[in-house]
Amino acid sequence: MPGFEFWGDEERKEVNEVLETGILMRYGFDGPRKGIWKAKELEQQICKQMGCKYAQLTSSGTSALTTALAALGVGAGDEVIMPSFTFVASFEAVLSVGAIPVLVDINSTLTLDPDSVEKAITSKTKCIMPVHMCGSMADMDALLQICAKHQILLLEDACQSFGATYHGKHLGTLGHAGTFSFDFVKTITCGEGGAVVTNDENFYKKADQFSDHGHDHMGHDRGAESHPFMGYNFRISELHAAVGLAQINKLDRFLSIQRKNHTMLKNILSEIPGINFRNIPDEGGDSCTFLSWFLPTEEATRKTVDILKEENKLAGNFYWYINNWHFHKKWDHLKNGHAMYPLHEEQKKALLELKEKDFLPSDALLSRCISTAISLGWKESDIMEKGNAIVAAARKAMA
Ligand SMILES: *Cc1c(COP(=O)(O)O)cnc(C)c1O
């Protein structure tokens, strides 16, 4: 999965070019930077590789989500439909613009269930936010149809799925806007960083302004620029962008290694009696950062996890059901509205109501699901060893 496994001379060269000029900021200093514009160059590469018109880099995937929501005009009291299985950043961003996160169930794609989405739509629904978890995709045809029918915005959180496609189009580029994360453990990394992508010039301009205090970026004198809207500082630095530039040039290599390793591991795990794999709406577009699989029962899954743990072989296998960060069951801070500052009434009320909701279909799925992270550095013998250990543990658990 993570690009940090392949850190090397390419990254050092790009970073050194920035260190030579000493211009660490992405805007201004046109003379002293001697033609070095790493953030701009990375944005162009993202557009080229993702096949979209516009990309705006940000300081993180979380700030990319906040920026995208702001650019789309999502704010106070608006409802954003998001899945019960995602990283906490998804609801953090929604809350940060004053909007209300509406959690709904996932299906066997491990992302938004279109039927649950449709049932959750109200007159306040402004945006649907599918999260393409673990390298693969939501049922985008169904979600795009729902958005068109109800005239709702679609924001793709593709933070975990850089390089994955859906019927030939890159995840992140199918909706009104999409976001990527380049934090340290993502498909490619900047150390920290993120991006908003869109094909809409108006949304792009707003994302560009919002992520830099509202600056309109017109002309060549930063101090003289005006600010049509309020914004924040969510800028990426040139040093981070330089790392990302080296990494994006290796993306195709990362994806082909992931796909090869994924296929081999999947073949081995297929031996487990009663195993099922995640439903992938477009199998060929999976970026294969993870192999996600289901055992027949929660009991068998818990036992398999326990056995792997006892044998010190659990590393790289994620049992999201009991994980602190990715599943609604451990989001007590959200459900209790534990902010450090007062929330507005409508938001607070919606959060406290979350406590009364259950997500039984999501629980039924994730209690039986394990995601195995695919490493770039594995040798064939590593895959056999890891795969066989999992098969043995699952067989023992079900004996
Ligand atoms: C990593 C991640 C984010 C946030 O990205 P950061 O760069 O860590 O802020 C958002 N959503 C999902 C699904 C993620 O996995």
| Parts with pLDDT < 50 across at least 5 consecutive residues | none
Find the count of extended strands (DSSP E, 2+ residues). 13
Characterize the overall form. globular
Task: State the separation between the terminal residues, measured CA to CA.
Answer: 32 Å
Q: What do we call the CATH topology of the largest domain?
A: Aspartate Aminotransferase, domain 2
Which kinds of small molecule does this entry bind, naming each only once? pyridoxal-5'-phosphate
The share of residues in extended strands comes to: 5-15%
Question: Can you count the helices?
Answer: 14
- CATH class assignment of the largest domain: Alpha Beta
Helix content: 25-40%
The CATH superfamily label of the largest domain reads: Type I PLP-dependent aspartate aminotransferase-like (Major domain)
The CATH architecture name of the largest domain reads 3-Layer(aba) Sandwich
Sheet with most strands: strand arrangement: 1-9-8-5-4-2-3
Task: Label the structural class.
Answer: alpha/beta
Radius of gyration: 21 Å
* Total number of distinct structural domains: 2
Average per-residue pLDDT, rounded, comes to 97
Major β-sheet annotation: 7 strands, mixed
Taken in chain order, the helices and strands follow as HHEHEHEHEHEEEEEHHHEEHEHHHEH
